[in-house]
Amino acid sequence: MKKILLSALLAAGMMTSAAQAATPTQQNGGSSAIMLQGFHWNSSSYANPDWYNTLMANVGDLAGMGFTHVWFPPPSDSGASQGYLPRQLNVLNSNYGSSAELTNVVSAFRSKGVQSIADIVVNHRVGTTGWSDFTNPNWTTYTIAKGDECNCGLGNADTGDGFSGGRDLDHTNVGEVQNGIKTWLNSTIKQVGFTGLRFDYVKGFSASYVGQYANAFAPDFCVGELWDSLDLNNIDAHRQGLMNWINANGNACGTFDFTTKGLLNDALANGNYWRLKATDGKPQGGIGWWPAMMVTFVDNHDTGPAESCGSGQNLWPVPCGSVMEGYAYVLTHPGIPTVFYPHIYNWNLKTQIAALMKARKAAGVTSTSAVAIQSAQQGLYAAIVTGGTHQLAMKIGPNSWSPGSGWTLQTSGNNYAVWMK
Fold first, then answer.
1. Contact (CB, 8 A) for 387 and 401
2. pTM across the whole model
3. 200 catalytic, yes or no?
4. Which CATH number covers residue 118?
5. What is the spatial distance between Cα 1 and Cα 14, in angstroms, rounded to a whole number?
6. Beta strands in 22-83 (DSSP E)
7. 183-226 pLDDT, tens per residue?
8. Which domain holds residue 202?
9. Does residue 421 belong to any structural domain of this protein?
10. Active site residue: 119, 148, 158, 225, which one?
11. Could you give the CA distance from residue 206 to residue 170 in angstroms, rounded to a whole number?
12. Does the active-site annotation cover 225?
């Protein structure tokens, strides 16, 4: 993330041989960003009001909590209600609401100082009436990767993993695919007011194209979804994959820290808080190697529940009763933290989440803040994080811990506490 995630990278001294960054820039206080995922798996089914108007009603409230960016669902017409089977890219009327409503809510956030991130699905596409009749923009079957399930792809081989839900696009196709995506980003997506990009299913195509598309758009925030299987016995291989992907896109786009996500899942479900500390003493996830390029999260529309513990997809959730422990970790640690919309309003966790966000901002914790882990054992993780103006001490887990004298408790709850000094 050239403007958001690369800020203060070299000064923080957090680089490793796993990654070589482009020269970082400090712009717009980017290292202090906090992102809201502004939807969940069931949002596309909302009506009266639809999702965009549901979001509109909470713009002021969310801005007041201190979010700098809000991640929107895929904006284009889609063959699936959630938006992840893009059909007519240039049509921005979707199950979430109308094009006008989308523009209005993005504008409303911008008026409150909150920038908007578009969910970009360009690994695949579906036809308007059949498997491959791409319209608006019109593309030929030369845009479909050879070997696709439709047996109609006249393009070159896929540059990543296959996706059976739609036609895999041939990103080596310059005229229709590369130029078409760049035109769509700059002529349709940017015109709505979006300033950031979230790339969906990036393991489906070469990272070099993510870099190309991001550079053409020049986002102030860019993050990719690189979700691979995690072997808890080989953590370094997983986070190395995150580093390799960022390097391969030319450092134009950061990634969600799925390594940290998996470690939190195990710690919160099984008490294995020791997994959160690496042998070098730093955090074990991607934030331990390249925090400025990591976007951390507790759950999202894919991994966790939606409005309640039993709803949504639940593909890789943290235990429902441990959600606030997860936030106590990501909202006090380096990386750029993400908060999931339903946790605020449907799970009634707004007060607790807002208190953690307030503590992070008050202490001046950024994406590259230093972490001194105090304890990482069965039943307990504790750390002191140095912000720009103050220090935060935090603990999660059922075992007791205190940072000692001179600290003021900021917030606490079931199995978590945060202090400031």
1. no
2. 0.94
3. yes
4. 3.20.20.80
5. 16
6. 35-37, 69-71
7. 999 999 999 999 999 999 999 999 999 999 999 999 999 999 99
8. 9-368
9. no
10. 225
11. 10
12. yes
